[in-house]
Amino acid sequence: DAKTTQPPSMDCAEGRAANLPCNHSTISGNEYVYWYRQIHSQGPQYIIHGLKNNETNEMASLIITEDRKSSTLILPHATLRDTAVYYCIVKGSYGKLTFGQGTILTVHP
Amino acid sequence: SAVISQKPSRDICQRGTSLTIQCQVDSQVTMMFWYRQQPGQSLTLIATANQGSEATYESGFVIDKFPISRPNLTFSTLTVSNMSPEDSSIYLCSVFGPGLAVTDTQYFGPGTRLTVL
Inter-chain contact B4–A43, Cβ cutoff 8 Å? Predict the structure, then answer.
C-alpha cells in the first residue's frame, strides 16, 4: 500500500472549517484513500473514504485531487470534540490498514 | 457498522504473567485484526486472524509471544505471554467485512489498556 505524508499538527478555531491535507503521491489505481480519527485513547473511528471522486457524509468531506496524489479532509464546522489524531491511509484490497503518525488536530475555543 | 467489544477494558499485570484479551463482534466477519499502540505511538498491526486457519503475524511479532485464537466468525482472543513492562500498550481488535470487497470498512474496538509492572 502507498505511503502517506501528513503534517504532524494543526490548529483550528471552533466553528471554523478544519482542512487536513494528505499527500499520497505513490497511490496506485486501485487504492482507496481512507480517513480515521482517534480521540484520546479510544479505538480509531472511521470517517470517510474515496477513490477519485469527492465524497461527503454526515461527518466530513473528502476532496481528492484529479491526479489522486493528494487529498484533503474537511470538517466543515469544527467543535472541541473534533480534537483528535487524524489518520490518512491508502488501502488496497483485503483490509489491513497501516497507520502512520497522523495529524494532531487541536480545536480551540 | 460492526459493534466490537473487548474484555478487559484495562488491566495491571505483573511481569512474567500472561493476559488473554477477548474480542467479540455483533456480526459474522471474515477478517479480524489485532493491533498494538504503545504510549505516544501510532497503531502497529500484530496479526491477522481468519477463522479456521492459523493467524498471520507481522514482522517483529511471533506466535509464542502473542498466541491468537479464532474459534468462530464473531470471536477472537489475543494472549500477551510472559509480559514485560515493554508490553504496556493499548491492544485493539479490528474487523473487516463482512465481505472482502476493497470498499468494506475496517472497524475498531475500544481497546484494552495494559500496564505491566
Answer: yes
The pLDDT profile of chain A, 109 residues, written as one tens digit per residue, is 668 999 999 999 999 999 999 999 999 888 899 999 999 879 999 999 999 989 999 999 999 999 999 999 999 999 999 999 999 999 876 667 888 899 999 999 9
Distance of CA A35 to the CA centre of its chain: 4
- Inter-chain touch A43–B111, beta carbons under 8 Å: yes
Chain A nearest C-alpha distance from B49 (Å):
11
Residues B20 and B77 sit within 8 Å (Cβ to Cβ): yes
| B106: nearest CB among A30, A92, A95 | A95
Of B34, B53, B52, B54, the C-alpha closest to B44 is B34
